[in-house]
Amino acid sequence: MINAWISASIVAVIAGVVGFFVVLRGAAFVADAVPQGAFAGAAGASLLGINTLVGLGLFALAGSLGIGWLSKRARRDVSTAMILVVLLGLGALFLSFTVEYSAEIFSLLFGEVLGVSTSEILPIAVLGAVCVLAVLLLFRPLLMSSLAPESSAAAGISNTRMELIFLVIVALATSLTLPVVGALLIFSLMIGPPAAARSLTASPLAAMGLSVVLAVLTVWVAIAASFETNWPIGFFVGAGGAVCYAVGRLIAWLRTSHKRRVSDS
Amino acid sequence: MSSVLRVLFAPGFFASSPVHVALAVGGVAALVSGVVGTFTVLRGQSYSGHALADLAVTGGSATFLASISPLWGFAGTGVIAAGIMDMIGIRRPRGRDLATGIVRGAGLGLAALFLYWDTTSTSTTGATVTILFGSMFTISNSVVPLVVAFGVSALAIVAILYRPLLLSSVSADVAAARGVRVRLTGLACLIAIALAVSLAAVTVGAILSTALLVGPAAIALRVTSTPGRATMAAALIAVVTTWLGVVLAYDSITWPPSHNGWPVSFFIVTLIFLGFVAAQLTRRARQAKG
């Protein structure tokens, strides 16, 4: 139970930090596609009997770089969709080769936070720290190329390189968080809290901090609820992400309509 | 010639009834996906298409609980989700992707819950795999009329709204100036996508239905830029790849390692992906030449 809390909190911090840029860059589809594609890698790794984290990492990276490569030639949403489906096709193939895999698939897709062992926490923590550190070091250039690509290019920041770095960070964050919250729902955590934070504050650093706090809160509530009810944690994470977003939008809307009323009178 | 045919079509292919159903249902789903997909790609709504496919999973898993035909759940949830997305939808593409993602996340959360109940109430975990990845050879005959009905309604929406849809896809402002109700057209388009996607979800599986929606249309729009021709080409490519996928999957029963056959969806997706990459590369070569 302690393990679950620790690992899920690490995951939430990563998701909050990385998710901030996902929302800023409007890369919801990428953040959604990479984990799902990586899931296929986990299936492949378990088929070959190697560590699933390796399979996850390889597929996440291949998926990210593939999206980066194809979007130079085609529209980004189309490229993302194509890379996603080809990885999933491979996943379906791997799954068809194994027979007794269904329960494990379910946990990879929807998360198995209570099954995290002590030996798994250390790699998650180290890689997670790398991930967060990378984002913090590159905070300014990433922020500039996300918000104003033209002026950042003028300032000597390569937008294509930033896109690539961003994709690699998403891949890394994905392979860490996937086994804990599941392929289908990491992404709720990467989108809901940061989107809410963005609509609550305009300052980038404050928004990032708030998004981490909201993500951690969501995960904690989800774990507690999942432990109480025995229902899959994915359900609570998905619902929590949506609630965060809805509340954020509501507060932002109340604030603007209040402002409008003040300026009208 | 006949020996070539015998290599391509494993013995018993044309006599097998599951194959007939797979060809018919898969063909209808592919046709509809190809046509609707052209507009999906033109409007930059690949993500909505993908999210609707995933959301259809929610409906599929709910129908497993209620033990009615999954197609109703797939299509019903798809249409409801399309409505919700349109309701919170924001005009800017970035905001739209975000709204799509939020709806998808919440929907999948519900799917996780339903699937959990499915597996605990029936103690078979196979439901998860069937719903997510689909299985064309296990479609029952009774689904065929339903598939056709859903397919025809999706095609009807596109046919009736062809011109306003095209106009508002290319430029929303021009369409609005010409008196097209852009918002309503957009909703109708999302519903058509939802129907197409739920059909494909039954055949190639909820997740992989994105392939049929986006892939053939993306290839077709690369090859020709006339919308009418692109729509036909997309439909054709979708149907051909689907049928080829069925043929290959039938052949693969004798392949290693398990002699169980490789999944149909794997073949379809791989064919589409190869076509997509080829279309990108030839176009680039042509540009370099011209």
Architecture overview:
The complex is a heterodimer of chains A (265) and B (290). With 265 residues, chain A is mostly helical. Chain A has twelve helices and no strands. The mean pLDDT of chain A is 82. With 290 residues, chain B is an all-alpha fold. Chain B is globular, with a radius of gyration of 19 Å. Chain B starts with a helix and ends with a helix. The relative contact order of chain B is 0.17. The chains are: A mainly alpha (265), B mainly alpha (290).
Secondary-structure element series of chain A: HHHHHHHHHHHH
Largest sheet report of chain B: none
- Oligomeric state of this protein: heterodimer
Terminal CA distance of chain A: 55 Å
Class per helix and strand makeup of chain A? mainly alpha
Which chains have the largest interface? A-B, 56 and 63 residues
Structural key phrases:
heterodimer, A: 265 residues, mainly alpha, 12 helices, B: 290 residues, 80% helix, 0% strand, globular
Layout of secondary structure:
The complex is a heterodimer of chains A (265) and B (290).
Chain A: H1 2-24, H2 28-48, H3 52-70, H4 76-97, H5 102-110, H6 118-137, H7 139-147, H8 149-154, H9 159-181, H10 186-200, H11 204-229, H12 233-264
Helix pairs in contact in A: 1-6, 1-9, 1-10, 1-11, 2-3, 2-4, 2-9, 2-10, 3-4, 3-9, 5-9, 6-9, 10-11, 10-12, 11-12
Chain B: H1 2-8, H2 17-42, H3 46-66, H4 70-88, H5 93-122, H6 126-133, H7 143-160, H8 162-170, H9 172-177, H10 182-204, H11 209-223, H12 227-251, H13 264-289
Summarize the structure.
The complex is a heterodimer of chains A (265) and B (290). Chain A is an all-alpha fold and 265 residues long. Helix content of chain A is 85%, strand content 0%.
